[in-house]
Amino acid sequence: MTGTYRDGNSQRNYTYLYDRSMFTSMWVAYPLYKSTFTGSSAYSGSWAPATGNGFGTNNSNGYQINVWDASYNVLLNETTYVNNASSTGQEFYACGHQIPDADRQYNQTMVQQTYYAINSTPQIQNKFNGSIWSSLENAVRTEAGKVDTLYVATGPAFDRADISGTETVTWITPKGDPNRSCPVPNYYWKVLLKVTRDGDGKVESACSIGFWFVHQQYDNSTYADYAVSVNTIEERTGLDLFANLPDTIEETVENNSNWQTFQNYTTN
Predict the structure, then answer these.
(1) pLDDT tens-digit readout, 5-23
(2) How many C-beta atoms lie closer than 10 Å to residue 248's C-beta?
């Protein structure tokens, strides 16, 4: 199922494609610009079931995994929950935002929507979510501050579409939902797009970049080491990203895999 969340001013927050059987948004996409991640005060949120867009209220239709009562509380390489994973001193799966809360400091409604359960996936906390992935998210906001709008899409992957065979997927049982399980992604990806428009608002040029990570612990690595082209992400996921670009532009810009080239691209 797909849907879009907006704030009280009808401003678009993010769009998603949600798989009810896997309790996972297979991608989220959103525009990012300076006012969405800066503000006079810091807004905060707490995990909650998504409402509207076919989800009902208070998870009444059962389409969401319960991470709002107790997070996952599952240790890395385990499948069942413990009482308090973060206090064990061991690596654990955290509620990883697909669209970060820090990208949506425009108002309280927008940031709270990033805490909907459909925006959470189990991410290795200390050496993934809190390190290399967080560094990439910070870099994305830096790039967004240089242009009018940066377009972002991000998501998990469980199998690579470009290789044969079925990859093993680990399913874990969260503490807040002891009778059900959800899958741990084998990969995470993110794609970015900058565009230049003519006087009529039509796209006349663009630049894109992608990032692909095996979902594992990372030591002494930088996110730039995992830059790939958008075409590579499409091959590995089977998705058609930035499909609204004019075909002639899309064919060219989705080949770039150089992070510095993307950083140096300026828009009017």
Answers:
(1) 999 888 899 999 999 999 9
(2) 8
> Which residues 6+ apart lie within 8 Å of 207 measured at CB?
193, 194, 253, 256, 261, 262, 265
Say what the pLDDT of residue 69 is.
94
242 backbone φψ class: left, alpha, beta (φ>0; ψ -120 to 50): left
* 57 contact partners, CB below 8 Å, separation of at least 6: 51
Q: Global pTM?
A: 0.95
- pLDDT computed for residue 268 by the predictor: 62
Q: How far apart are CA 131 and CA 221, in angstroms?
A: 9
Give the fold, CATH level 3, of 2-264: Extracellular Endonuclease; Chain A (3.40.570)
- pLDDT lower than 50: segments of the chain: none
